[in-house]
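User: Before I run my own analysis I want an independent prediction to cross-check against. Here's the chain; please return only the structure tokens and, at the end, one sentence I can use as a sanity check.
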Amino acid sequence: MPLRFQTEIQPAHVRAATAGIFWRQLLQPLVLALLGVFWLGAHLSLLALFPQAPWLTHLLLALLLLGSLSGVAWLASQHYQGLAQENFRRFENAPVQVSLEEDAYHYQAAWGQGRIPWEQVQSLWRLKEVWVLLQHAQGGISVLLPAASLDDEAREFLSRRLRAAGAELKR
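Assistant: Structure tokens:
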């Protein structure tokens, strides 16, 4: 028997999905290791260029570099959140009738209706505010499901069904 419920995507859901995925991708061990190598290389370069500078100068320059990298990451996050808001604008604040069935995710709303077979979903991001179903292809699909709309049965069904379809489940 399919699970049916109504939900509505709010701008906060789009921001939460975009920011959550962006920061989790950025904070992966490999990315952090590469940033550490870059930071260490920059710091060693400063030590080689200014060996007589006091340690406080090196510390301030290292902190300035770290702050600059953090600022660039924050600006990139804001940029991607803006793009996502623009892409999802037509879906926001419109009730969506959702049906989770064994073969596919079905939806019906003022902006359209359709179905997405589970096999097309390659990852499920289970974030605090929103669950995101993604297809990682150019022009791929992104489905946002507000976490507040998902009861335990729907969460379990989505996790089980997408795992069986070969999707990667992420937190």
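Sanity check: The helical segments are 11-26, 29-49, 55-88, 152-164.
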